[in-house]
Amino acid sequence: MSFSILLLSAIQLLSSFCPVTCGYNHAKADDASQLRVYIVHVLPPSNAPNAGPTDLESYYKSFLPDSISESGETRLIYSYSEVLSGFAAKLTQDEVDSMAKNPGFVRAYPDMLIPLLTTHTPDFLGLHQGRGLWQPSGLGKGVIIGVLDTGLHATHPSFNDDGVPPPPSKWKGSCEFPAGCNNKLIGAKTFNNSGSGAPDDGDGHGTHTASTAAGNFVQRVESFGLASGTSAGMAPHAHLAIYKVCGPAGCSTSDVLAGLDEAVKDGVDVLSLSLGGSSVPFYLDPIAIGAFGATEKGILVTCAAGNSGPSDSTLSNEAPWILTVAASSVDRNFRSIVTLGNGEKLYGESLNQPKSFKPSSLPLVYPNEGACTVDFANIFGKVVLCDADVDEYGVTASIKDAGGAAVIFLNDNSSAYSIVLRDLEFPSPKLTYEDASKVKRYVNTTRNPTASITFNGTILGVSPAPVVAYFSSRGPSTATPGILKPDISGPGLNIMAAWPVQPETGENGTKTFNIISGTSMATPHLSGIAALIKSAHPDWSPAAIKSAIMTTSYVVGDNRKPIPDEQHLPASFFAMGAGHVNPSNAADPGLIYDLDVDDYIRYLCGLYNGALVDRNVGGVIRRRISCSKFGSISEAELNYPSLVLPPGSTVNRTVTNVGKANDVYRVEVEAPKGAKVTVTPATLTFSKVKEKKTFTVRVTGGKSGLAGNLRWISGRHVVRSPIVIVGDAKDL
Ligand SMILES: *[C@@H]1O[C@H](CO)[C@@H](O)[C@H](O)[C@H]1NC(C)=O
Ligand SMILES: *[C@@H]1O[C@H](CO)[C@@H](O)[C@H](O)[C@H]1NC(C)=O
Ligand SMILES: *[C@@H]1O[C@H](CO)[C@@H](O)[C@H](O)[C@H]1NC(C)=O
Ligand SMILES: *[C@@H]1O[C@H](CO)[C@@H](O)[C@H](O)[C@H]1NC(C)=O
Ligand SMILES: *[C@@H]1O[C@H](CO)[C@@H](O)[C@H](O)[C@H]1NC(C)=O
Ligand SMILES: *[C@@H]1O[C@H](CO)[C@@H](O)[C@H](O)[C@H]1NC(C)=O
């Protein structure tokens, strides 16, 4: 597995519901007198709801036993003001236990690591210079994208500022690079509770994601001699603000919260987070909490859906105020053809395509049924078959040492048609599960099996495309089953983008662009596209931008068939979200499903409707709340652009006209099989821009899991919302 995917699949966060003294009970095995970093949630100061940062800091300090521990360490690490009511501090468990007696205490848990979730893409998405969404948005001019990641390789050519104006006056951030920043890279800061240093990217992940979102134009880019062309991010003239909150091991909760807090203060417009833990209730989820604070300030937060697919209910970052991004393929292959001794040709892919490799017939071996863990004594000059997702780097190194000619990696039934490429610096084609089965059958039935390999470079126009990648995490959501998640899919398989120059690796010592995979790579595509929309419509709320992206997405692929998943079966909405992003249409959606902070609060009051509801909702929204006074709604009633409906339910939705003043929309329902969906009224007539109209959706019958679509159609717009039935009719 590639680095980024590995990091995501190793996720561990708080896993169970814990009401008050959450989290730290899990650490009982540790020495209760050992000092460690805790995140502490507290009630906001009651007498000063609008306390400034200094007041807050002294309030937070009042929870601490002293400002310096016995061992001489400063207790308070971060004092949060924008996105969390609370702080990060060095404490022992015993000290947390006694702090819990303070009436303002809500909960505390130890700092944890959140994993990172790890180009041609502009063309594939219909972005071309001089037309498409790049036209009305001025390439993202004036919009600031904040990226929380592993830092940035600031001298990379993708971060040149040709054509980028100075940052808007609202920008308050600063630059910690000794060499300073420029109009493209307007700010950069490090948040590391156990160290310090410039926000340099020692990893590559942060440089890759930032350049995907907003890299400027770079001519004649290639990697591995493949994929040559002009490189650009989604919003080539947007500004970048970098918050280094992750290191090689992952990103600590306290640092992520500090980065979010700072980004909100600095004045970013869009946030991009290619990281995430496993599903927990939102009041225990630092990204959900931090994203709520950002949303309240008008910032759209885009997050990776996770790399734990293809199993169900494997999502990260599920809150409805977050744009949750799934990963799919693009129409590009790095083709490598394996011709078996019987003449059968199998079309695989490889990043390493040595020109010196001779396409002659070579003996083919299949050591311990693909496990490739035994000795490689007898493989000199042979082609070795190995299962994909063994330690591909380690196995390849052993085969190289033993004088093997090449390795062919074989997908299993879970990765199926998704080929995830890795830089193995060795001839290493990888085959789909279907082709892997053919090779295995051939080897099994042939006395002296042989194969020859040719490398055929970059192929465009590959069909089908897009295809949801096997690793992309799937719904239904665990944290909020009544909201359809993920929200959207974008390119995340074998994506080329900027990479720090690492003299010890790469061809002839320079790898300034690299090809990697993950929902980490899909996320900055969406944050860049969100920046383009924000640039074209500066007054749109985060929910409006989300709605525009979701309702204009597409579900039919290049071959006029439904977008498939890794098995080449029609992808469900729980795999691809509402559909695949269509940037050109997203700037002109016609209607939007808007939401404000009060809507989210009523939703939270409904979601946590139990004894601790006020405490749990308060933990997310950073203020004291009485849900019984404020009111609550069910998940289905949230004015979300997609619908998860129990059979027999009736919900309202309200749309806002953002197209031309006078327009008429009529409804078209593609009901889930066996269900009847009635929409009233069936026609919506608008006479003003920003006019709102409410309609009612009633569902009867239908079986859990079946899906359909609701479309509002006018002369120039189609506004599509997916409908998924959950629960069975007999429950009613
Ligand atoms: C923080 O700094 C420490 C000490 O320099 C370093 O070991 C660690 O990797 C850094 N962590 C991050 C997330 O950068
Ligand atoms: C492969 O996985 C799919 C989806 O889980 C399943 O339907 C199919 O039966 C599996 N095929 C084989 C050969 O195991
Ligand atoms: C190869 O042959 C063996 C023995 O005939 C059989 O058990 C095995 O399932 C076969 N494997 C494949 C992949 O066909
Ligand atoms: C693949 O490349 C080889 C030479 O490396 C060439 O002979 C062959 O025609 C190519 N095949 C395709 C399908 O492009
Ligand atoms: C690497 O350098 C060698 C020697 O200068 C040259 O022949 C070769 O083409 C270079 N390879 C690439 C990919 O640039
Ligand atoms: C839905 O809208 C209709 C018509 O505007 C209204 O009468 C009804 O009370 C609404 N229902 C809900 C559940 O809000």
TrEMBL record:
Entries under CDD domains matching the protein: PA_subtilisin_like, Peptidases_S8_3
Signal peptide feature range: 1-23
Gene Ontology CC annotation, any one: extracellular region
SUPFAM superfamilies the UniProt entry points to: Subtilisin-like
InterPro entries tied to this protein: Peptidase_S8/S53_dom, Peptidase_S8/S53_dom_sf, Peptidase_S8_Asp-AS, Peptidase_S8_subtilisin-rel, Peptidases_S8_3, S8pro/Inhibitor_I9, S8pro/Inhibitor_I9_sf, SBT
Ranges of residues in domain Peptidase S8/S53: 140-560
GO molecular function, one term: serine-type endopeptidase activity
Record's protein name: Subtilisin-like protease SBT1.7
Lineage summary: Eukaryota, Viridiplantae, Streptophyta, Embryophyta, Tracheophyta
